Protein backbone atom coordinates (compact mmCIF):
# COMPACT_ATOMS: atom_id res chain seq x y z
CA UNK A 1 0.00 0.00 0.00
CA UNK A 2 1.34 3.42 -0.98
CA UNK A 3 1.76 6.12 1.60
CA UNK A 4 1.80 9.86 0.87
CA UNK A 5 3.80 12.49 2.75
CA UNK A 6 4.34 16.20 2.15
CA UNK A 7 5.37 19.20 4.20
CA UNK A 8 4.90 22.94 4.00
CA UNK A 9 6.91 25.57 5.85
CA UNK A 10 5.25 28.16 8.11
CA UNK A 11 7.49 30.88 6.69
CA UNK A 12 4.64 33.20 5.66
CA UNK A 13 1.22 33.24 4.09
CA UNK A 14 0.47 30.27 1.83
CA UNK A 15 0.41 31.50 -1.75
CA UNK A 16 -0.91 30.35 -5.11
CA UNK A 17 2.46 28.69 -5.86
CA UNK A 18 2.01 26.48 -2.79
CA UNK A 19 -1.67 25.96 -3.61
CA UNK A 20 -1.39 24.93 -7.26
CA UNK A 21 2.09 23.44 -6.93
CA UNK A 22 1.40 21.22 -3.94
CA UNK A 23 -1.61 21.82 -1.63
CA UNK A 24 -4.26 21.04 -4.24
CA UNK A 25 -2.61 17.66 -4.71
CA UNK A 26 -2.79 17.08 -0.94
CA UNK A 27 -6.58 17.23 -1.20
CA UNK A 28 -6.74 14.97 -4.26
CA UNK A 29 -4.37 12.36 -2.79
CA UNK A 30 -6.00 12.71 0.64
CA UNK A 31 -9.33 11.64 -0.88
CA UNK A 32 -7.60 8.66 -2.49
CA UNK A 33 -5.31 7.53 0.34
CA UNK A 34 -7.18 8.65 3.49
CA UNK A 35 -5.16 8.00 6.66
CA UNK A 36 -2.28 6.77 4.49
CA UNK A 37 -1.68 10.39 3.52
CA UNK A 38 0.26 12.56 5.95
CA UNK A 39 0.67 16.33 5.70
CA UNK A 40 2.86 18.33 7.98
CA UNK A 41 3.55 21.96 8.81
CA UNK A 42 7.35 21.79 8.91
CA UNK A 43 8.25 24.30 11.60
CA UNK A 44 11.66 22.66 12.21
CA UNK A 45 12.55 23.51 8.60
CA UNK A 46 11.21 27.05 8.96
CA UNK A 47 13.69 27.95 11.71
CA UNK A 48 16.68 27.18 9.46
CA UNK A 49 16.20 30.43 7.52
CA UNK A 50 16.94 33.42 9.81
CA UNK A 51 15.37 35.78 7.24
CA UNK A 52 12.00 34.05 7.51
CA UNK A 53 12.05 32.99 11.17
CA UNK A 54 10.82 35.14 14.04
CA UNK A 55 9.99 33.40 17.35
CA UNK A 56 7.30 36.02 18.00
CA UNK A 57 5.29 34.92 14.95
CA UNK A 58 6.22 31.26 14.38
CA UNK A 59 3.29 29.81 16.35
CA UNK A 60 0.77 32.08 14.63
CA UNK A 61 2.17 31.26 11.16
CA UNK A 62 2.04 27.55 12.00
CA UNK A 63 -1.60 27.86 13.07
CA UNK A 64 -2.48 29.91 9.97
CA UNK A 65 -0.81 27.38 7.67
CA UNK A 66 -2.88 24.56 9.16
CA UNK A 67 -6.05 26.65 8.88
CA UNK A 68 -5.33 27.47 5.23
CA UNK A 69 -4.91 23.79 4.40
CA UNK A 70 -8.24 22.98 6.02
CA UNK A 71 -9.85 25.90 4.18
CA UNK A 72 -8.84 24.52 0.77
CA UNK A 73 -10.70 21.30 1.59
CA UNK A 74 -8.19 19.07 3.38
CA UNK A 75 -10.22 17.22 5.99
CA UNK A 76 -8.15 16.41 9.11
CA UNK A 77 -10.53 13.60 10.05
CA UNK A 78 -9.83 11.88 6.69
CA UNK A 79 -6.04 12.40 6.49
CA UNK A 80 -3.24 12.80 9.07
CA UNK A 81 -2.36 16.48 9.44
CA UNK A 82 0.13 17.59 12.09
CA UNK A 83 2.97 19.90 13.08
CA UNK A 84 6.52 18.54 12.66
CA UNK A 85 7.85 19.67 16.07
CA UNK A 86 5.01 17.78 17.78
CA UNK A 87 6.51 14.48 16.59
CA UNK A 88 10.06 14.32 18.04
CA UNK A 89 10.88 11.15 16.05
CA UNK A 90 11.63 13.49 13.10
CA UNK A 91 14.71 14.80 14.97
CA UNK A 92 15.94 11.36 15.80
CA UNK A 93 15.81 9.99 12.28
CA UNK A 94 17.30 13.24 10.98
CA UNK A 95 20.36 12.79 13.21
CA UNK A 96 20.91 9.23 12.03
CA UNK A 97 20.60 10.38 8.41
CA UNK A 98 23.12 13.19 8.89
CA UNK A 99 25.63 10.54 9.90
CA UNK A 100 25.32 8.78 6.51
CA UNK A 101 24.97 11.89 4.30
CA UNK A 102 28.19 13.40 2.91
CA UNK A 103 28.54 17.17 3.40
CA UNK A 104 29.43 17.43 -0.31
CA UNK A 105 26.00 16.08 -1.29
CA UNK A 106 24.29 18.70 0.88
CA UNK A 107 26.48 21.53 -0.41
CA UNK A 108 25.51 20.62 -3.97
CA UNK A 109 21.80 21.39 -3.39
CA UNK A 110 20.61 24.35 -5.48
CA UNK A 111 18.21 25.60 -2.82
CA UNK A 112 21.03 25.59 -0.25
CA UNK A 113 23.32 27.51 -2.59
CA UNK A 114 20.58 30.09 -3.33
CA UNK A 115 19.71 30.63 0.31
CA UNK A 116 23.22 30.38 1.79
CA UNK A 117 24.29 33.30 -0.40
CA UNK A 118 22.03 35.59 1.67
CA UNK A 119 24.02 35.07 4.88
CA UNK A 120 27.43 36.04 6.14
CA UNK A 121 27.24 33.29 8.76
CA UNK A 122 25.38 30.30 7.35
CA UNK A 123 23.30 28.31 9.86
CA UNK A 124 24.27 24.63 9.64
CA UNK A 125 20.54 23.77 9.79
CA UNK A 126 20.20 25.28 6.31
CA UNK A 127 22.77 22.78 5.04
CA UNK A 128 21.11 19.86 6.86
CA UNK A 129 17.65 20.76 5.55
CA UNK A 130 17.47 17.92 2.96
CA UNK A 131 18.49 15.28 5.56
CA UNK A 132 15.59 16.43 7.75
CA UNK A 133 13.30 16.35 4.73
CA UNK A 134 14.41 12.76 4.03
CA UNK A 135 13.66 11.92 7.67
CA UNK A 136 10.18 13.51 7.39
CA UNK A 137 9.28 11.31 4.43
CA UNK A 138 11.00 8.06 5.38
CA UNK A 139 9.83 8.12 9.02
CA UNK A 140 6.46 7.09 7.57
CA UNK A 141 7.98 4.89 4.84
CA UNK A 142 6.13 7.13 2.38
CA UNK A 143 6.70 6.49 -1.31
CA UNK A 144 4.61 9.31 -2.84
CA UNK A 145 5.48 12.96 -2.27
CA UNK A 146 3.29 15.74 -3.75
CA UNK A 147 5.57 18.79 -4.09
CA UNK A 148 6.50 21.54 -6.53
CA UNK A 149 9.26 20.92 -9.05
CA UNK A 150 11.68 22.95 -6.89
CA UNK A 151 11.84 19.98 -4.49
CA UNK A 152 12.97 17.39 -7.06
CA UNK A 153 16.64 17.64 -6.17
CA UNK A 154 15.84 17.11 -2.48
CA UNK A 155 13.74 14.07 -3.41
CA UNK A 156 16.66 12.66 -5.37
CA UNK A 157 18.82 13.00 -2.26
CA UNK A 158 16.07 11.37 -0.15
CA UNK A 159 16.22 8.33 -2.45
CA UNK A 160 20.00 8.31 -2.15
CA UNK A 161 19.77 8.40 1.67
CA UNK A 162 17.20 5.56 1.64
CA UNK A 163 19.49 3.49 -0.59
CA UNK A 164 22.47 4.16 1.62
CA UNK A 165 20.61 3.28 4.82
CA UNK A 166 19.25 0.09 3.25
CA UNK A 167 22.72 -0.85 2.05
CA UNK A 168 24.41 -0.31 5.44
CA UNK A 169 21.70 -1.54 7.78
CA UNK A 170 19.38 -3.80 5.74
CA UNK A 171 16.27 -3.15 3.66
CA UNK A 172 14.12 -0.66 5.58
CA UNK A 173 12.94 2.26 3.46
CA UNK A 174 11.22 2.68 0.08
CA UNK A 175 12.65 5.10 -2.51
CA UNK A 176 9.98 7.80 -2.69
CA UNK A 177 8.94 9.66 -5.84
CA UNK A 178 7.59 13.18 -6.28
CA UNK A 179 4.16 13.87 -7.77
CA UNK A 180 3.69 17.14 -9.67
CA UNK A 181 0.77 19.06 -11.03
CA UNK A 182 1.94 19.49 -14.66
CA UNK A 183 0.21 22.89 -14.93
CA UNK A 184 1.93 24.28 -11.86
CA UNK A 185 5.53 23.17 -11.93
CA UNK A 186 7.13 26.44 -10.81
CA UNK A 187 4.81 29.42 -10.47
CA UNK A 188 6.54 32.80 -10.91
CA UNK A 189 6.34 35.56 -8.30
CA UNK A 190 4.03 38.49 -9.05
CA UNK A 191 7.03 40.85 -8.86
CA UNK A 192 8.52 39.03 -11.87
CA UNK A 193 11.56 38.11 -9.79
CA UNK A 194 11.81 34.31 -10.16
CA UNK A 195 9.81 31.64 -8.35
CA UNK A 196 7.01 32.78 -6.03
CA UNK A 197 8.23 32.08 -2.48
CA UNK A 198 6.97 32.92 1.00
CA UNK A 199 10.32 33.97 2.37
CA UNK A 200 10.73 36.45 -0.50
CA UNK A 201 7.99 38.50 1.17
CA UNK A 202 4.58 39.82 0.23
CA UNK A 203 5.87 41.53 -2.91
CA UNK A 204 6.47 38.11 -4.50
CA UNK A 205 3.31 36.32 -3.43
CA UNK A 206 -0.42 36.19 -4.05
CA UNK A 207 -1.76 34.76 -0.80
CA UNK A 208 -4.69 32.39 -1.02
CA UNK A 209 -6.22 34.14 2.00
CA UNK A 210 -5.17 37.64 0.91
CA UNK A 211 -8.00 40.20 0.50
CA UNK A 212 -9.10 40.34 -3.14
CA UNK A 213 -8.58 44.10 -3.42
CA UNK A 214 -4.97 43.68 -2.23
CA UNK A 215 -4.47 40.95 -4.86
CA UNK A 216 -5.82 43.28 -7.54
CA UNK A 217 -3.39 46.01 -6.49
CA UNK A 218 -0.51 43.56 -7.04
CA UNK A 219 -1.81 42.29 -10.38
CA UNK A 220 -2.47 45.84 -11.59
CA UNK A 221 1.23 46.74 -11.38
CA UNK A 222 2.63 43.28 -12.19
CA UNK A 223 5.12 43.20 -15.09
CA UNK A 224 3.95 41.77 -18.43
CA UNK A 225 5.79 41.18 -21.73
CA UNK A 226 8.56 43.84 -21.49
CA UNK A 227 8.63 44.19 -25.30
CA UNK A 228 5.01 45.36 -25.33
CA UNK A 229 5.56 49.04 -24.64
CA UNK A 230 2.39 50.60 -26.14
CA UNK A 231 -1.19 49.31 -26.05
CA UNK A 232 -1.05 48.90 -29.83
CA UNK A 233 2.08 46.69 -29.74
CA UNK A 234 1.42 42.95 -30.14
CA UNK A 235 2.41 40.97 -27.04
CA UNK A 236 3.88 37.53 -26.40
CA UNK A 237 1.88 35.59 -23.77
CA UNK A 238 4.66 32.99 -23.54
CA UNK A 239 6.85 35.47 -21.63
CA UNK A 240 4.06 37.01 -19.54
CA UNK A 241 3.45 35.92 -15.95
CA UNK A 242 -0.17 37.12 -16.18
CA UNK A 243 -0.69 34.50 -18.88
CA UNK A 244 0.92 31.88 -16.60
CA UNK A 245 -1.67 32.80 -13.98
CA UNK A 246 -4.50 32.65 -16.54
CA UNK A 247 -3.53 29.01 -17.13
CA UNK A 248 -4.20 28.36 -13.44
CA UNK A 249 -7.32 30.44 -12.85
CA UNK A 250 -9.18 30.89 -16.15
CA UNK A 251 -11.32 28.54 -18.22
CA UNK A 252 -10.04 27.26 -21.56
CA UNK A 253 -12.10 29.76 -23.62
CA UNK A 254 -10.62 32.70 -21.72
CA UNK A 255 -7.09 31.30 -21.98
CA UNK A 256 -7.43 30.90 -25.75
CA UNK A 257 -9.02 34.34 -26.11
CA UNK A 258 -6.31 36.22 -24.22
CA UNK A 259 -3.60 34.24 -26.00
CA UNK A 260 -5.00 35.21 -29.42
CA UNK A 261 -5.94 38.79 -28.57
CA UNK A 262 -2.61 39.54 -26.86
CA UNK A 263 -0.66 38.45 -29.94
CA UNK A 264 -2.73 40.76 -32.19
CA UNK A 265 -2.92 43.66 -29.69
CA UNK A 266 -6.69 43.08 -29.55
CA UNK A 267 -6.67 43.18 -25.74
CA UNK A 268 -4.65 45.52 -23.52
CA UNK A 269 -2.78 44.34 -20.42
CA UNK A 270 -5.21 46.02 -18.00
CA UNK A 271 -8.24 44.27 -19.52
CA UNK A 272 -6.31 40.99 -19.60
CA UNK A 273 -5.56 41.42 -15.88
CA UNK A 274 -9.23 42.21 -15.16
CA UNK A 275 -10.23 38.95 -16.85
CA UNK A 276 -7.66 37.13 -14.72
CA UNK A 277 -9.09 38.77 -11.60
CA UNK A 278 -12.50 37.25 -12.39
CA UNK A 279 -10.97 33.76 -12.27
CA UNK A 280 -8.99 34.60 -9.12
CA UNK A 281 -12.18 35.81 -7.40
CA UNK A 282 -14.13 32.72 -8.41
CA UNK A 283 -11.37 30.38 -7.14
CA UNK A 284 -10.40 32.10 -3.91
CA UNK A 285 -13.76 33.36 -2.59
CA UNK A 286 -15.01 29.94 -1.35
CA UNK A 287 -11.60 29.21 0.22
CA UNK A 288 -11.59 32.55 2.03
CA UNK A 289 -15.18 32.04 3.21
CA UNK A 290 -14.30 28.61 4.60
CA UNK A 291 -11.27 30.11 6.41
CA UNK A 292 -13.56 32.68 8.05
CA UNK A 293 -15.94 29.91 9.15
CA UNK A 294 -13.05 27.95 10.68
CA UNK A 295 -11.93 31.03 12.61
CA UNK A 296 -15.29 31.10 14.43
CA UNK A 297 -14.41 27.80 16.18
CA UNK A 298 -11.37 28.56 18.37
CA UNK A 299 -10.64 24.86 19.10
CA UNK A 300 -11.01 23.30 15.64
CA UNK A 301 -7.45 23.74 14.38
CA UNK A 302 -5.66 22.88 17.64
CA UNK A 303 -7.85 19.81 18.28
CA UNK A 304 -7.16 18.60 14.75
CA UNK A 305 -3.40 19.10 15.19
CA UNK A 306 -3.39 17.29 18.55
CA UNK A 307 -5.17 14.33 16.99
CA UNK A 308 -2.89 14.44 13.91
CA UNK A 309 0.28 14.33 16.05
CA UNK A 310 -1.01 11.26 17.91
CA UNK A 311 -1.82 9.49 14.66
CA UNK A 312 1.55 10.38 13.15
CA UNK A 313 3.46 9.16 16.23
CA UNK A 314 1.59 5.86 16.16
CA UNK A 315 3.18 5.22 12.73
CA UNK A 316 6.56 6.81 13.53
CA UNK A 317 7.39 4.98 16.79
CA UNK A 318 7.65 1.43 15.41
CA UNK A 319 9.75 2.73 12.49
CA UNK A 320 12.14 4.43 14.92
CA UNK A 321 12.29 1.23 17.00
CA UNK A 322 13.23 -0.72 13.86
CA UNK A 323 15.86 1.89 12.93
CA UNK A 324 17.39 1.91 16.43
CA UNK A 325 17.73 -1.83 16.37
CA UNK A 326 19.26 -1.89 12.88
CA UNK A 327 21.73 0.88 13.73
CA UNK A 328 22.76 -1.10 16.81
CA UNK A 329 21.83 1.17 19.71
CA UNK A 330 21.76 -0.61 23.08
CA UNK A 331 18.25 -1.72 23.99
CA UNK A 332 17.24 -1.79 27.68
N1 LIG B 1 6.38 28.99 -6.89
C1 LIG B 1 6.03 27.71 -6.70
N2 LIG B 1 5.52 26.98 -7.72
C2 LIG B 1 5.15 25.67 -7.51
N3 LIG B 1 5.25 25.06 -6.30
C3 LIG B 1 5.76 25.76 -5.27
N4 LIG B 1 6.00 25.45 -3.98
C4 LIG B 1 6.52 26.52 -3.36
N5 LIG B 1 6.64 27.55 -4.20
C5 LIG B 1 6.18 27.12 -5.41
C6 LIG B 1 5.71 24.15 -3.36
O1 LIG B 1 4.95 24.41 -2.19
C7 LIG B 1 5.28 23.42 -1.20
C8 LIG B 1 5.62 24.10 0.09
O2 LIG B 1 6.93 24.64 -0.04
P1 LIG B 1 7.61 25.69 0.90
O3 LIG B 1 6.89 25.75 2.20
O4 LIG B 1 9.08 25.48 0.92
O5 LIG B 1 7.23 27.02 0.06
P2 LIG B 1 7.95 28.34 -0.37
O6 LIG B 1 6.89 29.32 -0.62
O7 LIG B 1 8.95 28.08 -1.41
O8 LIG B 1 8.60 28.74 0.99
P3 LIG B 1 9.98 29.35 1.32
O9 LIG B 1 11.04 28.29 1.22
O10 LIG B 1 9.83 30.11 2.57
O11 LIG B 1 10.15 30.38 0.15
P4 LIG B 1 11.38 30.70 -0.73
O12 LIG B 1 11.27 29.88 -1.98
O13 LIG B 1 11.22 32.14 -0.92
O14 LIG B 1 12.58 30.38 0.10
C9 LIG B 1 6.44 22.61 -1.76
O15 LIG B 1 5.95 21.39 -2.26
C10 LIG B 1 6.97 23.47 -2.86
O16 LIG B 1 7.57 22.70 -3.88
From TrEMBL:
It catalyses: tRNA(Trp) + L-tryptophan + ATP = L-tryptophyl-tRNA(Trp) + AMP + diphosphate + H(+). L-tryptophan binds at residue 136. ATP binds at residues 9-11, 17-18, 148-150, 187, 195-199. GO terms for molecular function: ATP binding; tryptophan-tRNA ligase activity. A motif ('HIGH' region) lies at residues 10-18. The keyword Ligase applies. This is Tryptophan--tRNA ligase. It comes from Deinococcus cavernae. The lineage of its organism: Bacteria, Thermotogati, Deinococcota, Deinococci, Deinococcales.
Amino acid sequence: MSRVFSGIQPTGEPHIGNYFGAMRNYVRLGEQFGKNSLYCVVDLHAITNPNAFDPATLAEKTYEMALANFAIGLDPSQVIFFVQSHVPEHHELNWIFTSITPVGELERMTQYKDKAGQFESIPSGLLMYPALMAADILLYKADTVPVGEDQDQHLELTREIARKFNHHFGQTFPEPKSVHDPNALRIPGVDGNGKMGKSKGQGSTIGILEPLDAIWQKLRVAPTDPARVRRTDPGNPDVCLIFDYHKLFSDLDTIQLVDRECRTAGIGCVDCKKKLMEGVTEHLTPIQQRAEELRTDPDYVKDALRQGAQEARAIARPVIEEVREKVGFLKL
